[in-house]
Design a protein that fits this description.
The chain is an alpha+beta fold. The protein is 38% helix and 21% strand. The chain has six helices and six strands, in the order H-E-E-H-H-E-H-H-H-E-E-E. Strands 1-2-3-4-5-6 form a six-stranded mixed sheet, with helices on both faces. The mean pLDDT is 90.
Amino acid sequence: METSPEPRPLDPLVKTTFTLCIGLIVITVVGMILTAPDRSIPPYSVMAQNGEHVTVNVPPRTTAPEIEALLVRFQAAGHGNRDGFAHLKIKPTTPGDPAGRYQRVTIYVFDNAGLADESALNEYVRGADPLAHSSFERGVRGIYRLTTGTEFAAMGSRIIFQGKVGGG
């Protein structure tokens, strides 16, 4: 009766290569899961910042419920120590304030990058040109405002939320 030969053990180099390949696949999959973009809010870009005024831009076809979800995300970032704004790529708005880096912030949401750019924001904050001021305000799809004691969000004339908050 013929018997099959005893299987030879794998070469140490083959074992090491196999282990390394499996490890890299696991690291890649875990990394993809951990760095996946947040799909509960629309994609957005922080376009400009002038002190406590910040503009963000969303894609042109962003729906009202998606913008509302983004405003709610800003609300969540504004609670507690308020450092959640740093995770949203917003630079400190009150960097010298001993109470915290984000004591006051106003975020304007646009779906037109031209209205959200730095020059448009600076012109709006300066307030010298009534036409530019009016154009800026007409282009705003949503607004979130946080002060030391209150917060407010609206889309057009519809108030999403408003109320008192604890300081940072």
